[in-house]
Amino acid sequence: MKPEHETPAEWLPFLSGGGQMGAMMRAHDWSHSPLGHPRTWPQALRTTVGLMLNSKFPMFVAWGPELGFLYNDSYVPVLGEKHPAALGKRFHDVWREIWDDLHPLIVRALKGDSTYMDRMPLRMHRHGYDEDTWFRFSYSPVRDEDGTVAGMFCACVETTAEVLAERYRNEENQRLMTLFEQAPGILAVLRGPDHVFEITNQSYMQLIGQRGLIGKPAREALPEVANQGFFELLDQVYQSGQPFVGHAVPLRVQREANGPLEERFVDFVYQPIRGPRGDVEGIFVEGSDVTMRKRVEDELRAANRQKDQFLAMLAHELRNPLAPITTAAQLLQRGTLDPQRARHASDIIVRQAEHMTDLVNDLLDVSRVTRGLAEIEKEDLDVVAIVHGAVEQVRPLLDMRRHELKLALSEQALHVSGDRARLVQVVSNILNNAAKYTPPGGRIVLRVTSEGGEAVVAVCDNGQGIEPQMLPYIFDLFTQAERTPDRSQGGLGIGLALVKSLVALHGGRVAAHSAGPNKGSEFVVRLPLLSDAAAHEPQQPDHHVGEGAVRVLVVDDNADAAQMLATLLEAHGHVVSVEYDGTGGLARALRERPEVMLLDIGLPDMDGHELARRLRASPDTANAMLIALTGYGQSDDRERARQAGFDRHLVKPADLSELLRILAEVRGQVD
């Protein structure tokens, strides 16, 4: 026996078949449905339900005043957990959560107007939670036999997966576009044989300047790049399908409207973009602006060349004095020279040794100053007195080259704060430079004036001048004009670099001017004037120190240097002993108690610092004058010597006049 409410299919043929929902409709208890029993359904509803049940497209029908809800198998997934309870219920009760969204469309359909919605968003509650869904559907009116709209029919497709997939693709595309836009390298996509800009990133725009590119062919968008080879390369890659890679290629672009062409350097790749059939459809441009890297590399190469040139120059400058020194020493070694020739040979050795010492001192000076290690002791100085001191130093060279020097000095006292020795060095270096680069018999003018709260020292010559391309680098380290045959001692190219650094230490500035080759040059130094400078008191001459013999101990592992220094001091009337290591030096010092000890720092057994500490610790030698004699002349070397107990620090080769002055002071104290 069948259940009483089951409707035999033979009675209601429109419910025959229809899959799961057809069977459910036949077995359903319709007593609580606003639709009533299927036997009472009008023919229009029966026809619509029959068509719906046998369709594979998701469909539903809402019929009658209360819109009783009927649907087919394909619509079941749309309902989710609302199935099967939704069968025969009121539309409002089935889709209560989206009723407000659908009601206007339902009203239109019941008025006889069909509606169509594509990707309509609906927030459904069908799986136990609220979820965002999207649907493509149409609402159509369904008319009864008398032509009255009695219900509505819906055919629908859920497009949630499609919408979410598209949204994900869009988000991914946006992320990719963001990455593309923020990429540090230059990126661009060009389409078609005319290379029309489709996409560019910010780095690309920074390279070529902000301008409208998108939708424009490359030749139209970047007209100034014509004839630089880039457009031809794009044509080649598009036609051949072969990528091109460029390294540090120069590119001249007008980065600002109406601005000048700027040269940049780029690493880049032109990569063909192929379509589905393998044809080239565009070009992907990727690269980097390597302008800064290229400039640094060029500077490093230039610095390396400068270094090589400097080393060659240094070797030349050192060989020049070594040759006469060696020759004079060999002549003296033979012992066959008469006194006059022996004196002449000795003068050559002294003069050339002093020249070598000057070279080494210049190197040490520029090293200290350029590294910020130079110490200057400032005092109130008269600029005119500084100039006179510099002229005195350079006078021998001026006389030797028969130059006319004209001085145009300010009558007003000009006072600056500075280190006298360093400022004399500045002016003498500039004068020395003018003398060397001016042919014999030339004219040099030195002017001292004041201007805008500054003391101005200008040196102008009628010499060989400066090439325009060299003028910006004239104060760079190791920069030197080309040598001429008559300038056998041209220096190391560090004088002007030293001038610039020393002037900067005094808060001033220096500049060079020249109209070109053989048109002379002018160097101008500007130093800030003291606002309340009083007349500078003339320096008092050094008090004459009484002469007399001093007992001296020389400790140096270089036997030749120790013996020669001892001989030199003995020639000036002093009593000198020599030792060649720290142990021997300590023993002799304790035995002979010398008044002055000249100690080399680099001794083989104990260094000079340790020897000095031991001498200071002994009551027999604690009060002796200790002089460090070393090749190390940095400020930290002097400080280490002071901490070890040394009174003075002399750099090899020791200045004889300074050493004799120290000995004279000691003799005066003893007397």
Structural write-up:
This protein is an alpha+beta fold and 671 residues long. The protein has 5 domains: 13-164, Beta-Lactamase (2-Layer Sandwich); 183-289, Beta-Lactamase (2-Layer Sandwich), CATH 3.30.450; 296-370, Signal transduction histidine kinase, dimerisation/phosphotransfer (DHp) domain (Helix Hairpins, Orthogonal Bundle); 379-528, Heat Shock Protein 90, CATH 3.30.565.10; 551-670, Rossmann fold (3-Layer(aba) Sandwich), CATH 3.40.50. The protein is built from 19 helices and 22 strands. The strands form 5 sheets. The chain has a 5-stranded antiparallel β-sheet with strand order 2-1-5-4-3, sandwiched between helices. Strands 7-6-10-9-8 form a 5-stranded antiparallel β-sheet, sandwiched between helices. β21 (625-630), α18 and β22 form a beta-alpha-beta unit. The protein is elongated and about 150 Å long. The chain starts with 18 loop residues before the first helix and ends with a helix. Residues 482-489 and 533-547 have low confidence and may be disordered.
CATH class of the largest domain: Alpha Beta
Unreliable stretches covering 5 or more consecutive residues: 482-489, 533-547
What would the average pLDDT be, to the nearest integer?
Answer: 85
By CATH's scheme, which homologous superfamily of the largest domain applies? PAS domain
Secondary structure category: alpha+beta
Count the helices. How many?
Answer: 19
- What is the overall silhouette? elongated
Q: Report, as a whole number of angstroms, the end-to-end distance.
A: 151 Å
Question: Would you report the number of β strands?
Answer: 22
Any idea of the CATH topology of the largest domain?
Beta-Lactamase
The radius of gyration is: 51 Å
Structural domains: how many: 5
